[in-house]
Structure formats: structure tokens, C-alpha cells
Amino acid sequence: TSLSARGRIPFKPSFFDLVVIDEASQCDIASALPLIYRAKQVVVIGDPKQLSHISGLQKGQDQKLLEQHDLVRDYSHWAYSYNSLFDLASGLASGEDIVSLRDHHRSHADIIEFSNRFFYESRLRVATRYDKLKHPMNNGRGVRWIHVSGNVVRPTTGGAINTREAELVVGTIRQLVNDQGYKGTIGAVSPFRAQANLIRETINKDVALSARLIQHEFLSDTVHKFQGDERDVMIFSPVISQGTPAGALGFLRSNGNLFNVAITRARAILLVVGDQQAAAQCDVSYLAEFSSYVQKIQDAELAKVEQILADCGSEFPAVDNPEQVSDWEKILYKALYKAGIRTLPQYRLEKYALDLALFDETHFNNGRRLDIEVDGERYHRNWTGELCHRDQLRNQRLYELGWDVMRFWVYEIRDDLDGCVSKVKQWLEVK
């Protein structure tokens, strides 16, 4: 650690050719200076959308010290009461020296996609190996919300607790471990220390459950404890419900990064146990939007069954993203329909929209599924480019979900439409 270097590593300038500082958003500038002194070059790795360091120096004190030593004009970005080492480094580095790590390898797409949109401007690419995830549920969703209302109270030690919510968190853990025999790691996280403590204390009262959770590396704690850590299953307890103190809401509003860390510690599934209606109606913007996000995932699961059973007709049906549909997709759809092959245009699967989705008659008994993609040459020409890299990740994810993928260039549809239809027929005939 940055603080343990003292006394262990000689305090000599340029002692190392290279020093790499990880989790730099949590590292304060002052603690890093002795490490930087020992280095010829420094690599600083961190995420400004995660938690920052906790400073014992108030912002006002910091500002006075800068003014006292005439440093405000040239060194204001070195004020470490609110600037982390990552903030400092990103401001000093030139553009060619900044590398964005965009491929996300930890979580199910449902888990990371909200943060990707809300915090990272959709820059992340999901590259998770789904075959490595330990999913406890029969369905493939990565996020579930288990609704429970309750009364929020402020304990004498501060913060907020929701007893009914904590009890359901423990009940959910008991069901995972005792009833389902789940083998993966489990964690429980809350923005409020009092709630995390209550969950842990309730677990400890069940001696048998507490003993079994040792092998699941169980931890119930605040978000700060989980930064840099992860579990196969994370249970998030937001606490928000009837009677939430104004101070608790204010704390949440001013700590969006805390929420980002909380919901991205899960690998396979994030279980939110809390009052979904209260979250949707509270004036904490990210929590309200997250409630809506999870609801859309749940609604989409129900809509999929109806969609799969539907006959869209011989004409290309209306879709919610017509600007992404080419004329060649419509031509192929009509030709397939005429040949007795019913496809679903712009079928939603996780974060993707499939051009034409095809299910065989045994779909509900783990039947075969085919994604038919129509690729425009101008759109997909650069195979080594960003777009085609995303396509490769997408193909890999579809394979993991049990889908086959068949791609047609637009010139194939234009020059040999019957041949394209024939290829799809051949896929259907394989049993």
C-alpha cells in the first residue's frame, strides 16, 4: 500500500524505473508523493466515477494553505481535500498518455449497463465470459428487484435502517444457501452502515446460516468496504421507504459515485431488496432511474413470451427503432415469410437488438435460436475497427446464450435472395 512503503523501500529518487498506482481515485495526493519521488515514470490507474479518498483536511483549510503559500494560481489542482491522485494525474497527462480501459469483464450485461449509460456515457463494451458466471437463478437476468416496503428510522448512532428490508435480505440469503444450494460467493451492501450492521447481526443470530456463509465469503458492509471487491451475488439494500429522513436522502443525492460502486460489485446477479415504488418516486435521480431500468428489464421478460408467440404478418411490422432498419432487412423478412419462415424483427436480447430472430418449434424446451444479421458493406467494412470489435463481442455473447448467428451482406440479398432464404431453411432442417 502507499502508506506501507515507508521503512521498506529506500527513499531515493528514481529508485524504480516504473511505479504503477492502482485504485488511484481512492489515493490522496500527499500519500502518493513519496512514491512518485522514487519513480522515473508513473502509471496511474483509476476510475473517477468510483469512490474518492476520505480527507481529514477540510476544503476551506486546504484553500487557505494554498493562498498562504501563493499556490492558488498555479497549483489549485493539487488541493488534495477534494482532488484524488487520479484527478491530478488526468489533468497533468497529455491526450496521447491517457488510455481508456473500456472492455468490461466482471459482470452480466444487465448489471453494468445501467452504470454504462448513467455514469460512463455508454463507452464501456461488455466482454464478460458468461460461461464463468455462477448464476443461481433459472432465468438469465442479471438484475432482479425484490419489493418490500417498510419504515425507515434513524438510529442514535446516525444513518438509517429499515428492519423489514434487512429481514428480507437475510431471508433471501437463506433461500439461496439452504433451499437452492447455491455455491457461489455472496455479499450484502448498503449505503448506510447501520443497515449493513443490522443485516450482519441478523445473520449472526442464525448460527447454522452464519457458519455456512463462511464458505461463501459472505460480507455485509458499506460501499467503501466493497470498492475493489466483488461477489458472484450481491444483495443491495437501499433502505429508502416510508419515513426516510431528509438527511439520508441528502446523503444519497450527493454521493452518486457511491451508488455506482454499490451496484457494480456483482458478477452474476444483483438482487435489490427494497421498496421499488419509494425508489421510483424519491428525488434521488439515479435511484429513481435505476428503479425504472430494472422495471423495464422485468417487463421485457414478460413481453418476450408474447412476442415469440406472435405472427407479425407478411409485411415488415412497426418497430421502436425504425431508423436502424435497412430496406434490405425488410426485403429479407418478406422473402422468409413468403417461404413460411416467421422471424421477429429487432428482437431485444439484453442490450442488443437482433435484426431478425428465428425460433424453432421447440424453443420453450431449450430449442435452437438464430440471429439473422444484415450487414451493410460501408457500415462493417473496417474489420479491425471499433464497430466490428463490438460485433465480435456481441457474437460471443449470443453464442454463450445458446444462439446461432447468420450474417448476410446486403449484396448477397441483392444478388441471391433465394440463396439466402435457402441457407435459413437449411438451418431449420438441422436437428
Q: How would you characterize the overall build of this protein?
A:
The structure is a single chain. The chain is of the alpha/beta class and 431 residues long. The protein is 41% helix and 18% strand. The protein has helices spanning 29-37, 59-68, 72-75, 85-92, 109-118, 163-179, 193-205, 207-212, 223-226, 246-253, 256-263, 276-281, 285-309, 327-338, 377-380, 386-400, 410-415, 417-429, and strands at 16-21, 39-44, 103-104, 125-126, 143-147, 152-153, 161-162, 186-190, 219-222, 231-236, 266-274, 344-349, 352-359, 369-375, 403-409. The strands form five sheets. A five-stranded parallel beta sheet has the order 5-11-10-8-9. The chain has a four-stranded mixed beta sheet with strand order 12-13-14-15, sandwiched between helices. α1 links the parallel β1 (16-21) and β2 (39-44). α6 (163-179) crosses α7. The model is unreliable at 362-366 (pLDDT under 50).
Overall spatial form? globular
Tell me the strand order in the biggest sheet. Answer: 5-11-10-8-9
Average pLDDT confidence is 88
**Unreliable runs, pLDDT <50, ≥5 residues?**
362-366
Query: Roughly how many Å apart are the termini?
Result: 57 Å
Structural class of the secondary elements?
alpha/beta
Count of distinct strands: 15
> How large is the share of residues in beta strands?
15-25%
Q: What gyration radius follows from the Cα positions, in whole Å? A: 26 Å
Question: How can the largest sheet be summarized?
Answer: 5 strands, parallel
How many helices? The count is 18
Measured as a percent range, the helix fraction is 40-55%
